[in-house]
């Protein structure tokens, strides 16, 4: 039982309440009738458990005392061991100090001895070296040809020969020229021979990429006057092979990276050597490559594309190679690039404007040729005005309107082609023009684009479109193509604005040329908008004029004043007008956008309202005819709902209310006139409509019109 208690006590976490619950549960389970409560049995169990726990506590207490005694003994034992170790450590420190003093003493004596030996050996070494040099010098001072010493003939002793001849050459420079001229000549000859052999050996080591040998030879040659020849030989041999086939730019950066690592290991002045390495690439390889590519100027467009590509790739190459240049050569690559392309950049702007002019002119000619159209001077505005005046005053049409079969002479494809050409030109201009000339060059290119695209294409098409709008008040329903002109003009203008924001404005912003650009753009847009407004006005006038004439000739008096009872339906004239107007409204919505759409629809609706209002004023209405008039107005109202204009809707609602005055009984006129719709209208308008009733003479002297006609 005690072992069971221990297991329960060792569980984490230990809860006293749970322990008592488990004890109670075990006691109840041991009884046969566990459903009854047995307090005596529980009491006995708790008493026995308490006794067991006391026994367990005594055992655990005894065990703890034994463990504590054992721990105390081990602690004393370890403390004694640590004390002995500390004594031994202190002894070792004392011995190490004594040993260090002895080592320092011996080292001092050795250094002193070394200095003494060096003082004795240095003069001796110098004497030996001087003796050797004197022996070599004697050979060159002797009359006759030089006896070739083994050191100069043995290829394996080239480094030693170089050291000797370099020192002899330095000594010979101090000899007087008179008696020693021949000796100096011999030394210089041998000096040049050894130097040449060193350079040849260096070239051989370079071919096999023997870096250590190259480094040794470069270090030796750095003391010779022909050291630059060694550098030149390295550069020439490194750049001898083609970089990357026909495209020179691909292989330059990897080539420079590879040789930069070698140059850093071989030469004592790697930055200077690398700068010369890159300088050689620009002045020889790149310059020759550019001259070859830009030699042919017959195809100007191809020449400009090639110039842009070469210049942009050279600038990128300069950026990539800048990490290999020294800080004092920061702008060297930029200067080299300018030197390569200086001749071509000088005449770039003139060629660019000439090329863009030719491309735009060709695109225009191709477009009009495809339409089989010969451009003519658009000077028919005065004639058009005279035709309108005569047609209005004399009610005759003196000339047929040329509508070119509905052709607008506007092409989005042509506009896109011109804009693409201009975008490419502006892109080249931004790169190839210097900072001071960029705004002026960009404005010139923009002027060319505006001239051909807007003046010679869009403006010309607008003039033709204006002339093609039918005269107002014709008896035949007008064929309207100007709305298509408006749609295409808007598309072209939007495309032009997009190009200007992305390609023109960045070139001229924050410069005096910006105001010039804004002024020209504003004048051009005002001219275009004026002609668009004029064309829209003429188109609306043509449609509304036809409505006026059609109703005037086709609306019968008996439609609104039938002599017999007829079915209450809309008149044929009204239905024909609505049928013709619906496609016009659809076309306007398709071709006009933005705020202009709402303005055009509102203007169209208000003019239509005026014509219908004036037309109704010319009629007389009996009861059956008034019903027909109301049906007609309802048809018009259905039609103008497509305009989405609150003003026009309100006007036709009022017209409908006015038509009700033609129908209501005389005794109800006062009530209708004071309704929400007509109450705020001028009394003269209401009175005019009431006078259109056939029974007006009968009711005008009655009290029904009191307050209306007074």
TrEMBL record:
Domain Exocyst complex component Sec10-like alpha-helical bundle: 160-704
GO BP of this protein: exocytosis; Golgi to plasma membrane transport
Gene Ontology CC terms: exocyst
Coiled coil: 50-88
Domain of life of the source: Eukaryota
Pfam families per the UniProt record, alphabetical: Sec10_HB, Sec10_N
Keyword Transport attributed: yes
UniProt keyword terms in alphabetical order: Coiled coil, Exocytosis, Transport
GO MF annotations, alphabetized: beta-catenin binding
PANTHER family given in the database record: EXOCYST COMPLEX COMPONENT 5, SEC10
Similarity-based family: Belongs to the SEC10 family.
Record's protein name: Exocyst complex component 5
Source species of the chain: Drosophila yakuba (Fruit fly)
Name of the coding gene: Dyak\GE23449
């Amino acid at each position: 039982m005690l072992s069971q208690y221990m297991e329960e006590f060792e569980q984490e976490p230990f809860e006293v309440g749970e322990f008592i619950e488990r004890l109670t549960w075990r006691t109840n389970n041991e009884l046969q009738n566990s459903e009854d409560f047995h307090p005596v049995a529980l009491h006995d169990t708790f008493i026995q458990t308490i006794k067991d726990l006391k026994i367990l506590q005594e055992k655990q207490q005894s065990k703890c005392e034994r463990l504590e005694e054992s721990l105390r003994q081990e602690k004393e034992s370890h403390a004694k061991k640590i004390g002995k170790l500390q004594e031994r450590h202190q002894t070792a420190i004392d011995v190490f100090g004594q040993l260090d003093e002895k080592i320092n003493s011996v080292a001092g004596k050795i250094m002193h001895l070394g200095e003494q030996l060096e003082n004795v050996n240095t003069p001796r070494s110098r004497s030996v070296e001087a003796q050797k040099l004197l022996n070599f010098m004697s050979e060159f001072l002797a009359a006759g040809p030089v006896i070739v010493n083994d050191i100069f003939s043995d290829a394996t002793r080239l480094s030693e020969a170089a050291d000797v001849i370099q020192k002899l050459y330095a000594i010979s420079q101090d000899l007087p020229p008179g008696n020693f001229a021949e000796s100096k000549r011999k030394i210089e000859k041998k000096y040049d021979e050894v130097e040449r052999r060193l350079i040849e050996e260096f070239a051989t080591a370079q071919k096999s990429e023997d870096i250590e040998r190259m480094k040794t030879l470069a270090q030796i040659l750095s003391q010779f006057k022909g050291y630059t020849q060694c550098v030149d030989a390295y550069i020439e041999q490194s750049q001898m092979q083609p970089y990357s086939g026909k495209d020179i730019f691909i292989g330059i950066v990897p080539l420079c990276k590879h040789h930069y690592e070698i140059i850093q290991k071989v030469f004592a002045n790697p930055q200077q050597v690398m700068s010369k390495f890159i300088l050689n690439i620009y002045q020889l390889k790149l310059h020759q490559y550019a001259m070859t590519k830009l030699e042919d100027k017959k195809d100007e467009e191809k020449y400009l594309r090639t110039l842009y590509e070469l210049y942009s790739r050279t600038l990128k190459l300069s950026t990539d190679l800048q990490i290999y240049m020294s800080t004092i050569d920061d702008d060297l690559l930029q200067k080299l690039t300018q030197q390569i392309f200086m001749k071509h950049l000088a005449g770039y702007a003139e060629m660019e404007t000439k090329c863009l002019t030719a491309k735009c002119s060709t695109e225009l000619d191709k477009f009009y040729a495809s339409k089989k159209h010969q451009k003519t001077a658009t000077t028919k505005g005065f004639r058009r005005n005279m035709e309108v005046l005569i047609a209005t005053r004399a009610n005759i049409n003196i000339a047929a309107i040329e509508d070119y079969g509905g052709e607008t002479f506007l092409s989005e494809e042509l506009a896109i082609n011109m804009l693409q050409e201009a975008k490419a030109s502006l892109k080249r201009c931004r790169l190839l023009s210097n900072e001071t000339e960029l705004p002026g060059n960009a404005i010139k290119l923009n002027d060319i684009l505006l001239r051909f695209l807007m003046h010679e294409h869009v403006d010309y098409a607008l003039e033709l479109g204006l002339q093609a709008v039918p005269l107002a008040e014709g008896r035949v329903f007008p064929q309207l193509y100007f709305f298509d002109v408006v749609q295409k003009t808007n598309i072209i203008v939007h495309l032009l604005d997009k190009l200007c924001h992305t390609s023109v404005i960045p070139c001229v912003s924050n410069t005096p040329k910006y105001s010039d650009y804004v002024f020209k753009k504003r004048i051009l847009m005002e001219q275009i908008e004026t002609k668009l407004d004029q064309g829209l006005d003429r188109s609306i006038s043509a449609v509304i004029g036809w409505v006026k004439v059609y109703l005037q000739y086709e609306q019968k008096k008996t439609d609104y004043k039938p002599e017999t009872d007829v079915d209450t339906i809309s008149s044929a004239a009204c239905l024909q007008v609505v049928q013709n107007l619906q496609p016009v409204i659809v076309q306007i919505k398709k071709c006009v956008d933005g705020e202009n759409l709402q303005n055009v629809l509102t203007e169209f609706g208000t003019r239509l309202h005026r014509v219908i209002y004036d037309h109704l004023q010319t009629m007389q209405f009996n009861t059956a005819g008034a019903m027909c008039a109301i049906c007609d107005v309802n048809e018009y109202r259905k039609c103008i709902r497509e305009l989405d204009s609150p003003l026009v809707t309100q006007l036709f609602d009022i017209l409908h209310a006015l038509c009700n005055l033609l129908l209501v009984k005389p005794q109800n006129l006062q009530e209708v006139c004071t309704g929400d719709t007509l109450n705020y209208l001028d009394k003269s308008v209401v009175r005019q409509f009431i006078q259109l009733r056939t029974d007006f003479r009968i009711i005008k002297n009655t009290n029904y019109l009191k307050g209306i006609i007074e």
